[in-house]
Amino acid sequence: MTRLDFKAAVEEILGVSPGALQDSDSRATIESWSSIADVQIVAFISSEGGIEPDSELMEAETFGDLVRILDEKSAFHG
Question: For the chain, what are the domain ranges?
Fold first, then answer.
């Protein structure tokens, strides 16, 4: 998965317009970002990125935190 693939998937899960998601966005700034969305995001990361959820991933506060953690875990290619 690429960073763009991940962003597009999270935008779809959250129901926001393509390109609207910012690194600073979080549960506090996006009304549709619920615990159900968290589960969907983690499922996507696991299936498409091959990354099993861990405490660091589960404690991410913002979209940018998720991207940074996935980058550190070498989840992105291309």
Answer: 3-72
Query: Given CA atoms 10, 14, 16, 20 in this order, what sign does their dihedral have?
Result: negative
pLDDT in 10s for each residue of the chain, 78 residues: 999 999 999 999 999 999 999 999 999 999 999 999 999 999 999 999 899 989 999 999 999 999 999 999 999 997
CB 11 within 8 A of CB 44: no
List of residues 6+ apart from 70 with CB closer than 8 A: 6, 45, 49, 51, 57, 76
Tell me the whole-structure pTM to 2 decimals: 0.94
Top CATH class, 3-72: mainly alpha
Whose tokens are 């291309």? That residue is 78
Give the CB-side neighbour count of residue 30, counting CA atoms within 13 A.
25
